[in-house]
Amino acid sequence: MEEMKGDEMNEQKKPFDLLNSALNNTVIIGMKGGIQMRGVMVAYDIHMNLVLEKAELLVDGEVKKGLGNVLVRGDSVVYISPS
Q1: Residue 17 φ/ψ region, left for φ over 0, alpha for ψ in the -120 to 50 degree band, beta for the rest
Q2: 32 contacts 73 by C-beta, under 8 angstroms
Q3: For the segment 13-50, what is each residue's pLDDT rounded down to a tens digit?
């Protein structure tokens, strides 16, 4: 495996950098059990618990149900993707 040196290492993104860049933006959350939600991520914590506003439950990429404001428990999150 190739090592990173100097400036390359400083530019490397960390998980919290990516979460910070997603704040106040629409994201799609993949969860255990194949559940997907879309909403505006307004907060997170060190456990990756997420707060979404205007959340929607997605089934096959289509909106199934509007959920409003939700708290997603971090250990159920599989991925977070920009919408």
Answers
A1: alpha
A2: no
A3: 788 888 999 999 999 999 999 999 999 999 999 999 99
